Amino acid sequence: MPNETTDKLRAMATHRGFRLVTSRRRKPGGDFGKYGLKDASGVPVFGIAKTGLSASAEEIEDYLRGATSNAWSKSAGSTKARPKPRAQPKPEAPPKPKPRFRVKVENLRTRLPAAKRTEAFTELLARPGVRVERIVSRGQSTPANEPMVQAQDEWVLLLEGAAGLRIEDSDEVSLRAGDHVWIARGQKHWVTWTAKDRPSVWLAIHLG
Q: What is the Cα–Cα distance from 132 to 88, expressed in whole angstroms?
């Protein structure tokens, strides 16, 4: 056989941990041109019988290639898949702190006084320079000869109901829910009428 074939098989065998065995017996019925394989310790592995060598170059090459494939398969099969990391439990949310005080919520438009005879005034807030009050009217008006005059500026908002208002040196204006007016200090003004069929609720802020 050409030496390059033998050299190729020997290199393949060595690479895969085997030793290539060749025969030189040329007598009739001999095994000249045949090959065999032994492992590193000298134990016959393939193509070696009691009568001599029996494997062709192609069979040795196929065996070596198959041995490589088997070795790779065993190696791949023995590699255990890495277990998926366990999902970490979500940290528990810290308990909400207990409130230190209770918010008091009130409504300007509920639990209204009757205000049948006179207007009802309720002070909501008083601080230096500012005073806030709610006024409930029901049919009341300011006498023409007794105008209201205040020493403070006033911003007034009609929350609900209906009313008429006249400020000194001006015509009367009609107010409905949501309307608001600025009245300067010392300015004479009159509530000319308020609704009789329902309460009129004012929010007045006095400044100064």
A: 56
